[in-house]
Specification:
Layout (H helix, E strand, L loop, with lengths): L12 H35 L4 E5 L7 E4 L4 E3 L7 E7 L6 H13 L6 E7 L5 H15 L6 E5 L2 H11 L7 E3 L2 E3 L5 E3 L4 E7 L8 E3 L3 H9 L10 H19 L6
Parallel strand pairs: 4-5, 5-6
Antiparallel strand pairs: 1-10, 2-3, 2-6, 4-9, 7-8, 9-10, 10-11
Length: 256
């Protein structure tokens, strides 16, 4: 067959227009369905109150610490429990956050799958650590096995807090005062650091928050209202308890 034997195909313009309109309709409908799916996902996400994942603590970077009873322990030994972790200097204990810890200890005293940990930021020399831990535990009212008070060499401990707990700053001392992130750290049974999720009443992405009670107290001092009968500090404690309850439920059966 020679090239000049080929005849051009006569395309009906009506067919072309119909095909073009079909493609347009398909694209419009498809785009609308995708948009509707995204909007549905956004609405569902805005209502989702499940605790947010921050990070998972690596077993390779676990924290070894000495406890108030003089024994050594590792954070990974507490896997399978929901943990609330506090960081404080022994010389200037945050009484506001400690009060929350005491109420949590009382509230969950019968639960085997919930524990509290306080990490002492400013351990002294090796000969002093045992006494410092006992003194701090007494000041807090922390008793084993429900509430562990522990510490490690400062550089190791501080790096762990910053890197694994995702604290907003590396603890340091300046002019005799410790600067550190005093937020309570919430860890689920699979060693995920979690934060609370608060849906927005007016729509939009939910608000993800940690548990910084000093910040909440500052909001109260500035006159910032919660829109409820509770103060910001009270609302944050209520939110912490609600989040703990979710983690206890989703991470396995309730403790006895």
């Amino acid at each position: 067959m020679r090239a000049n034997d080929l005849e051009p195909v006569n395309v009906d313009p009506k067919v072309l227009r119909r095909t073009a309109w079909i493609l347009v309709v398909v694209m419009v409908v498809g785009g609308s369905l995708i948009l509707m799916a995204y909007q549905k996902m956004a609405r569902e996400a805005a209502k989702d109150t499940r605790p947010s994942y921050v990070t998972q603590i690596s077993d390779r970077k676990d924290l070894l610490f000495k406890r108030q009873d003089g024994e050594l322990a590792e954070l990974k030994w507490m896997k399978g429990k929901v943990l609330v972790v506090q960081s404080v200097p022994r010389v200037d204990v945050d009484e506001l956050t400690t009060g929350v810890m005491r109420r949590l200890a009382e509230r969950y005293k019968e639960r085997d799958d919930f524990e509290l940990v306080t990490l002492m930021l400013d351990a002294g020399g090796k000969d002093e650590v045992d006494g410092e831990l006992k003194n701090l535990a007494g000041k807090l009212g922390a008793e084993l096995p429900k509430w562990t008070v522990g510490t490690n060499e400062q550089e190791t401990l501080h790096k762990f807090i910053k890197n694994e707990f995702k604290a907003n700053l590396l603890p340091y001392e300046k002019d005799g005062k410790w600067k550190y992130d005093g937020s309570l750290v919430l860890i689920d049974k699979e060693r995920h650091v979690r934060r609370a999720v608060v849906p927005q009443e007016r729509g939009g992405a939910p608000y993800v928050t940690g548990f910084d009670f000093q910040q909440a107290a500052a909001w109260d001092r500035d006159g910032i209202k919660t829109g409820t009968e509770f103060t910001n500090v009270e609302e944050m404690e209520r939110l912490l308890i609600k989040t703990v309850e979710v983690l206890l439920e989703e991470s396995g059966e309730k403790g006895k």
